[in-house]
Amino acid sequence: MAIVDDAPQVDTAEEAAFRDRVRRFLEANAQRRKSKRDGDEDDLPAVDPESEQLIAQSKAYQKALTDAGLAFLTWPKRYGGAELTKRHQEIFNEEASDYELPNSVFQIGHGMCAPTILEFGTDEQRDTFLPTLMSGEKIWCQLYSEPGAGSDVASLQTRAVRDGDEWIVSGQKVWTSGAHYSEWGILIARTNVDAPKHKGITMFIVDMRTPGMEIKPLKQITKASNFNEVFFTDARVPHANVLGTVDDGWRLSVALLMNERVAIGASGGGPRGGGVNALVRSARRNGSIGDPVVRQGLADVYTLERLMGFTGQRIRAAQKAGRAPGPEGSLGKLLGAIIARRQSDLGMAIAGASSQAWSAEDHQGDRWALAVLNAPASAIAGGTNEIQKNIIGERILGLPKEPQVDREQPFKELKVGTQRA
After folding, report:
1. Catalytic: which of 50, 95, 146, 260?
2. Residues with Cβ < 8 Å from 308, sequence gap 6 or more?
3. Is 229 marked active-site?
4. 378: which of 316, 339, 340, 384 is 20 to 30 A away, CA to CA?
């Protein structure tokens, strides 16, 4: 049976008026994407787009979006949302698909931190942090991974010790996207070494300019520096900034990660850069479009992009029905990583020698080389491919859970990270 797209939904009079309002806003505040017709350049983004100029543009765009009543369309007005329907969000997304929205710096804050604070925060925390987070006035990051706790995040060793109305935090985080330009972050730290590793973790909201915190950007193979190491040396965090309850942070951490995977998977397509359309244009320009091997590669990428699109529809349908993020986010996230690798490798093969060496006048000459160098990050960010496969196996296929012999042992007895010594 053939798989076809759902028939387009007909707008009501109110929805048509809203669509027109969105169009006028986007025309005035965003830049249209380049046409995907033959002859246009491949629209591949810079790998390190977090310049001061873009951050200023992003904040200005988000403020205008909020002032226009078009930000967080389904969220409560109390926090800066519009309290509209999922249908209004669908209309906005349909119209926005033709534009380059300068909102990448808000992906973590809006897609991961905001839903977590809304679900688990106190009324005071929601009122304090959500309005400026949603309006773009403040940029947020997440502080999870550590040098000795990457895929096994629950083995983290950053410690938080209670001292009256404050917690003293010491340790190190790594691979923190955007820490160098973020004002706030969500941190998980070890608060009970006598409990098993999943039960002695607490989640905190932290001011990224807190004394005792040092942020060091990491130089990547792509020449970008949007990842960071973050060091905590007796940094003090108010007890009022504990998110959820003490020692119950792992449950919140999983919820945030599910939000992250859903945010990636619900995008409904592969990685930026024109996808299969950019590859087709490249093959037509150099005459390899008739090569059967190239055509098969194009068909493979197209098929995967369509599958991810359908997965995105499933995720959005679940959200529309009010269901909590589920394992379908892992499906979308895994597909995105696979597409990134297939797309970049095929782009290099089609471009041939010009993907390895290019003239100084070709300002996009490094586009496929950078895509190849950047692709492995898609298989790590938000949980490795192997983790996504475990989740899919257990929660979708019903396979038995992997053995975890250390699950009930007190953390202080585990030989993990620097504790191995």
Report:
1. 260
2. 265, 268, 269, 270, 332, 335, 336, 339
3. no
4. 316
